[in-house]
Amino acid sequence: LPLSLSLALSLFLSLFSLSLPSLSLFSLVLLSHAHASRHRHILVVDLLSGPFVLIHPFSFSGCLSMECLPEGLRYFRTFSIAAGGVLLVRGTGRFLNSEYMNFARTLRVAQQGDASARAELCRYDGAYYAWPVDYPEKYQPPPLQFWSALLDGLKSTPWTPRHLVTFAIARTVGRPMLYPGSTALLNSQILPHFLTGRKQLIEEHGGQRFKIATQDHNNIDVVLVDRWADLDGRGKTLMVCCDGNACYYEVGGAQIAAKAGYSVLGWNHPGFGGSSGLPFPAQERRAIDAVMEFAVHLGFQPKHIVLYSWSIGGYTASYAAKTWPNVKGVIMDATFDDIIPLVLARMPEFLAGLSCAVVNNHLKLDNFEQIRHYKGPLLLINRMFDTMMMTQPGIMASNRGNVLFENIMMERFPKLMDEDTLPIFERLFSARHAQMLDDLRRDVGVDNDLCEAMVRSYAQQHSASLPSR
Question: Annotated active-site positions, please?
Answer without folding.
Answer: 311, 386, 462
